[in-house]
TrEMBL record:
Keywords: Cell cycle, Cell division, Cell inner membrane, Cell membrane, Coiled coil, Membrane, Transmembrane, Transmembrane helix
Species this chain originates from: Simiduia agarivorans (strain DSM 21679 / JCM 13881 / BCRC 17597 / SA1)
Localization annotation: Cell inner membrane
Residue intervals on the Cytoplasmic side: 1-3
Coiled coil regions, renumbered to chain: 26-53
Family: Belongs to the FtsB family.
GO biological process: FtsZ-dependent cytokinesis
Protein name, as recorded: Cell division protein FtsB
Purpose of the protein: Essential cell division protein. May link together the upstream cell division proteins, which are predominantly cytoplasmic, with the downstream cell division proteins, which are predominantly periplasmic.
Length: 94
């Protein structure tokens, strides 16, 4: 009877410390949940920024005009476009 109880105790201890549902397994799952929550928060913030940008594009022409100027180099009638070019590194004069 005693050997049977010892085997049962050993089996339960194994499951408590090593098997599925053990302290180590639960700890790993909690860490994974924490990492996923951080990733979800980053994605929520990105989605919030994109939603604000979409709303601005839908309602205001200012943001559309700004994008056209920055991304496509567009200008209005009557405006003059000036491009500032940085000089390349020149060798030092002796």
């Amino acid at each position: 009877m005693l050997p049977l109880l010892l085997m049962l105790l050993a089996g339960l201890q194994y499951r408590l410390w090593v098997g599925e549902g053990s302290y180590a397994h639960i700890n790993r799952l909690e860490q994974e949940i924490e990492r996923q929550q951080i990733e979800n928060d980053k994605l929520r913030e990105r989605n919030r920024v994109l939603a604000v940008e979409v709303e601005e594009l839908k309602t205001g022409l200012d943001s559309v005009e700004e994008r056209a100027r920055q991304e496509m180099g567009m200008i209005k009638d009557g405006e003059t476009f000036y491009m500032m070019v940085e000089p390349k590194n020149r060798p030092a004069k002796p």
